[in-house]
Amino acid sequence: MKSLEEWKEEWLAMFQLHSANPSQEELEAWEAEGVQFLKLYNNPEVSITIIEISGGKVELYIGVNTKWLAHEAIQQTEPQNFRYLSELTHKDDKIFSFETELMGYDILMSLSGKERKRFWMKYHRRLLAENGEYIYYVFSTSVYKLDGNNTPCLLKIETTRLPKGYQPAKTHYREFSHSLKKNKKEKPVIPKLSPREKEILELIHEGYSTKQIAVKIGRSEHTVKNIRKKILKKLGAKNTNLAYEVAKKHMMI
In angstroms, rounded to a whole number, what is the distance separating the alpha carbons of residues 169 and 135? Predict the structure, then answer.
């Protein structure tokens, strides 16, 4: 299984891989809009962060009347707020948070431009409060702006503090929504997975590579790759993260 540092590196690489290329006019428009945008939010229980993803780097506009923080994804360095947030996060939520954000961004980038604009995701995360207790927060991410090629260049994250003592029915809650209006009268029938397919999907989700899975189940890498393709086809998913969510939703795993 991947370590916390490996999850973090993959999280940083995600932004470098899917970096937008907004025009100079778009950047100048956001430069003027950004400061005014953040001043609209003054709720002490809600923090607003705008993430600008362009040119292989990430710029963060955090809260109200705070300075900008920069992160060079290529150099794999962290801005102060990422490090601070990681330190405050409950140990059982750290990997879950990276995994959720990677999963959400992977789903986002698999969509068409029109669908990307409608995409949002949210999940629960426990952060250490001033009194030494962990408080649940809701992290909600949506697409604020796309560049000319429909690549997300501005993401908006709303972090909402939940009431003290709040306990969700499910500790690791997350939800993704990118659906457009559909005219389908009947829900599609999802084929069931075989025991072997379930096993491989769970191993992929746990972070095992194709080679490691092949060794673990005593099959060739070619066989593992073919089974992976069958899983995606059966579940109508574009990637294994989405396939895992579909399988979980239909109680196959």
Answer: 15
Please say whether the dihedral angle defined by the alpha carbons of residues 165, 174, 160 and 126, taken in this order, is positive or negative: positive
The pLDDT, as a whole number, for residue 157 is 85
Q: Three-state DSSP class for 164?
A: coil
Helices (H) and strands (E) in the chain, counts: 9, 7
Domains of the chain: 4-177 (3.30.450.20), 195-249 (1.10.10.10)
Q: Tokens at residue 226, please? A: 């073919």
Query: For the segment 141-167, what is each residue's pLDDT rounded down to a tens digit?
Result: 999 888 888 888 888 888 888 888 888
What is the full DSSP assignment across 91-123? Answer: TTTHHHHHHHHHHHHHHHHTS-HHHHHH-EEEE
Residues 1-14: what's their mean pLDDT? 78
CA distances (Å), origin 174, targets 33, 93, 245: 30, 12, 10
Full DSSP string of 179-214:
PPP---SSPPPPPPPPHHHHHHHHHHHTT--HHHHH
Query: Beta strands 46-54 and 120-128: pairing type?
Result: unpaired
Ordered alpha helix ranges (H), 56-93:
80-88
161 in Cβ contact with 178 (< 8 Å): no
What pTM value is reported for the model?
Answer: 0.60
- Identify the three-state secondary structure at position 235: helix
Q: Residue 164: what residue type? A: K
Confidence of residue 12 (pLDDT cuts 50, 70, 90): confident
